[in-house]
């Protein structure tokens, strides 16, 4: 419905659709403003915590350089659209419980938690990296992905405002991260390069000219390039005995953390096994197939493990190692395209115990060389 306007035009009496869009834009702006207020309150509260006697006693040494790590859950809003409010709360509690477990392990000091964001102090950059990398590996639930930002600065009891600047900068670093990555400031990266003992070999990407909210100037930040570091083992439970021998042979490398081994015994009770397997394959550097008639006959392996693993090998460079546990029709499958880790004309179950041990050792040596040389 409309009427003629003296100006010569027509004026509609119908509620314009643009009003709805305008309303949604206003709501989005309000939400953004609320988030920014919460973030600023988080920083101010964290600054106050670092001025307490308890924090200063933990720091122990005047002028000591501390690393400030901030983590939060990536895509929580999107995740919230898929889950009920109580499920989101459960996810957050799992994430906080795992974070605090690791804080204790690495002798950190929790500064502040708000929403799903957690700020923690550590006494060295190496230990801060240990913490965030361990948390990325196990966030408390396979659907939880986290981002982390780290900055370092000296702790001065009489100049807490100086350390407050360190806290503020660390908080701003995480704001530029859009996915489940680890970013560090230029001083933090320099500390790793000069004084680090176990993280010097990490692969970093440099980002110049980065601007941070609330901090004047442009800065250089570094992001840790994602790397697959896991060995994924696919096997039939009916071959548990030979799988056990294989795992035992790799035990020294696992204990020294040369490799991280994943098999379906790592799936936690009550979690979605599909998500667990998907996450494990996404982090896999090498896929090991323990092939037998039972392996090839398994619908579970054929539908849930083999396709994504072989796709990762084709598209993302995951190395496939396979061993023939017993005679089978592997030539009728895609596995035939991949080179076996031993002479498949002599399946492992046809060998004496002593000869099988030697063969297992050779297979595992090739596996370790493949992992270390990538």
Search tags:
elongated; Alpha-Beta Plaits; four-stranded parallel sheet; alpha/beta; Rossmann fold; seven-stranded mixed sheet; 2 domains; 47% helix; 374 residues
Explain what this protein looks like in three dimensions.
- The chain has 374 residues and is α/β, with parallel strands linked by helices.
- The protein folds into two domains: 42-224, Nucleotide cyclase, GGDEF domain (Alpha-Beta Plaits, 2-Layer Sandwich); 230-373, Toll/interleukin-1 receptor homology (TIR) domain (Rossmann fold, 3-Layer(aba) Sandwich), CATH 3.40.50.
- The chain is 47% helix and 22% strand.
- It contains twelve helices and 13 strands.
- The strands form three sheets. It has a seven-stranded mixed sheet with strand order 4-5-3-6-7-9-8, sandwiched between helices. A four-stranded parallel sheet has the order 11-10-12-13, sandwiched between helices.
- Strand 6 (146-154), helix 6 (160-174) and strand 7 form a beta-alpha-beta unit.
- Helix 9 (273-282) runs parallel beside helix 11.
- Mean pLDDT is 81; it is low at 11-24 and 26-32.
